[in-house]
Specification:
Strand content: under 5%
Radius of gyration: 15 Å
Distance between the termini: 39 Å
Number of helices: 6
Largest sheet: none
Oligomer: single chain
Structural class: mainly alpha
Length: about 150
């Protein structure tokens, strides 16, 4: 397993743990499980030695980094997209998720694969869509309030 793939796995697992901590603090673990379903695939693919792990991880990492940046901008009072109060633990977890997302993304950029461009693009588009759908579904009342 190339060292870049190990970094991608480590960063994805860090994101998972941090988001599950947020779920435990908020008593909304189901919401975090739904949100993180797509990121399990690159973890499994990387452990199996598949180069598709890179292409499935990158859109998830980008979306999580963007989400954390929006939360930080809200905390600074610059945007009002994300409403609500965040506990100190949640704020710490946003930093961890953001740093892990950025580190994982840059590790994935350095990871050279033999995956053909069309296949790489298709996998990236699929996982970008899956991550957006997972976030959207997690906001539905039955899941968001359970």
């Amino acid at each position: 397993m190339p060292k870049e793939s190990k970094w991608v796995v480590f960063c994805c697992l860090t994101i998972l743990v941090a988001l599950y901590v947020v779920g435990a603090v908020n008593h909304r673990v189901l919401r975090q499980i739904v949100q993180t379903l797509p990121i399990w695939v690159p973890i499994v693919l990387a452990f199996r030695g598949s180069e598709f792990a890179k292409w499935s991880a990158m859109p998830c990492l980008i979306i999580w980094l963007a989400t954390m940046m929006i939360i930080w901008l809200f905390r600074l009072g610059w945007v009002y997209v994300v409403l609500g109060h965040r506990s100190p633990i949640e704020i710490a977890m946003t930093v961890i998720v953001g740093v892990a997302s950025a580190a994982g993304f840059f590790a994935a950029l350095r990871w050279r694969t033999a995956v053909r461009p069309f296949s790489a693009g298709a996998v990236a588009a699929l996982f970008g869509a899956l991550q957006f759908v997972a976030l959207w579904v997690s906001l539905s009342p039955p899941i968001a309030h359970s």
